[in-house]
Specification:
Number of helices: 4
Distance between the termini: 117 Å
Low-confidence stretches: none
Strand order of the largest sheet: 1-3-2
Shape: elongated
Order of helices and strands: HEHHHEE
CATH topology of one domain: 50s Ribosomal Protein L17, Chain: A
Mean pLDDT: 85
Helix content: 25-40%
CATH superfamily of one domain: Ribosomal protein L17
CATH architecture of one domain: Alpha-Beta Complex
């Protein structure tokens, strides 16, 4: 029985084939930095690639063993860990992959994409126009305002 075995997208195959296909796609992406595949497959491997790169940024032996188990090739994992040690993704806190749509395949109308590793440094978000466009001119010297104390009227003396 397969109680509690559903994990992610099945991609139209049984669990063992899905697992093998994902492992192969992750390995190919990390080897070549860019692959052409179907949209659903690219979206399925994106979290796994992000995990491997996060482990590479961490850099300890346990992370390396987890990455070897996920990718299945020690040489590819070594290259990724070296890239991470050189600071390729040092300023990036996720989002290590980019998916660009190419259009639909002629035979079965499946959405074809390119998934690639992002290598550019992160551009900080530009703050909303915080600079004042016009310089505030000092207010013209106004006459002193009347004070709050009203002038006292002379008291009327009543002579009775």
């Amino acid at each position: 029985m397969r109680h509690n075995k559903k994990r992610g997208m099945k991609l139209g195959t049984d669990a063992a084939h899905t697992k093998a296909m994902k492992k192969s796609l992750v390995k190919a992406l990390l080897e070549n930095d860019r692959i052409k595949t179907l949209d659903v497959r690219a979206k399925a491997i994106r979290p796994e690639v992000d995990k491997v790169i996060t482990w590479a940024k961490k850099g300890d032996i346990h992370s390396r063993r987890l990455a070897i188990a996920k990718v299945g090739d020690k040489e590819v994992v070594r290259e990724i860990f070296e890239k991470a040690a050189q600071g390729m993704w040092a300023d990036r806190n996720g989002g290590y992959t980019r998916i660009m749509k190419l259009g639909r395949r002629k035979g079965d109308n499946a959405e074809v994409v390119i998934i690639e590793l992002v290598t550019e440094p992160v551009q900080p978000k530009a703050k909303a126009a915080t600079t004042v466009s016009k310089v505030e001119e000092p207010a013209p010297a106004a006459e002193p305002a009347a004070e709050a104390e009203p002038e006292e009227a002379p008291a009327e003396e009543t002579a009775e």
